[in-house]
Amino acid sequence: QPELTGDFGQLMQWVDKYRKLKVRTNADTPQDAKVAREFGAEGIGLCRTEHMFFDADRIMAVREMILSEDVEGRKRALIKILPMQKSDFIGLFREMKGLPVTIRLLDPPLHEFLPQKDSEIDELAKVMNVTAQTLKNKVEFLHEFNPMLGHRGCRLGITFPEIYDMQVQGIMEAACELIKNEGFSIIPEIMIPLVGEVKELAILKANAVRVCDEVIARYGVKVEYLIGTMIELPRAALTADAIAKEAEFFSFGTNDLTQTTYGLSRDDAGKFLPFYVESEIYPNDPFVALDQAGVGQLVKMGCEKGRATRPNIKLGICGEHGGEPSSVIFCHHIGLDYVSCSPFRVPIARLAAAHAALKG
Ligand code: PEP
Ligand code: MG
User: What ipTM, to 2 d.p.?
Assistant: First the structure.
């Protein structure tokens, strides 16, 4: 780990002897993954694939897919993106050199993908061979007042199964190619976001397994893979025993779990939250330090219920709290397997994890 040398490097080697928690990183590009590995990350705990869809050449195809009238139109649009996604995943797997990589299927608020400007609608209308008015009506129909509580996460995967099928195909083709041609060992972890009801996960898992098995048979290689979910809605934590029947791992999304437990928009919190913290109504900003009395109890319950159904279920956290020391210490005490945080927080998380283990 070239970035951590000298006394600090020595200290970090000591802390690694004591900590029980693994430390992974949140990374969407090979560059981020490289930085994180140099800081000691032991895997990727969250790759947010929606961040891969905003390039000019992809956003058009995604819009085409969302606004298509039929399945065939949707599939035609996605065929354009598949090779790009596949090379994204090859890049990440290569950089992580066999360490675990959790790839989360698409989770955007839908409005971020819809065309807004007239010029964008006109351009898309030409590609799709429909009138601009037809597209405008469709965009209007899809408009939401609360997109963060709306048509996002796995709800998108349920209504547009072709998107998740394409992503799973990209992940598995990337893995199979590296295993077959470069002798890699990879166990991809496919993660479904914003599940609140086990049936959502059961449907999406069945789709993912079908696509994985088809790709594996086509390449003729042996590949293991895991399918799991984020626990980021109170209902998911409350029903984690049922959800664990379908999930091989849980990753706690404490950004959304904080938002939905407090009923407080994570995008607008800055307006009054500083006043609450200053007045000591809230001890901390709950989006920074995990609220152990409330949100943390849901995380703890989720772990207990998950383990009751599936004793060896893998448990991690990938909300921003995964790199905040007091939250990392809490994660140690409730017995998570790993925390995942942004690359530059990896050393802090390693220290906090050792601190927790030494203090007992
Ligand atoms: C979360 O909700 O905690 C999470 C990690 O997902 P995102 O921040 O992408 O919503
Ligand atoms: Mg989330």
Answer: 0.99
- 236: amino acid identity, one letter: A
Residue having the nearest C-alpha atom to atom 1 of ligand 1: 253
The pTM is what?
0.96
- In angstroms, the CA 145 to CA 49 distance is 24
Give ligand 1 pocket residues (Cβ under 6 A).
46, 48, 232, 253-256, 318-319
Catalytic residue among 47, 303, 318, 331: 318
Largest pairwise CA distance in the chain: 66
Average pLDDT score over the chain: 95
* Atom in ligand 1 nearest the alpha carbon of residue 255: 3
Q: How far apart are CA 235 and CA 196, in angstroms?
A: 5
68 near 135, Cβ under 8 Å? no
Measured distance CA(243)–CA(236) in Å, rounded: 7
What per-residue confidence (pLDDT) applies to 54?
86
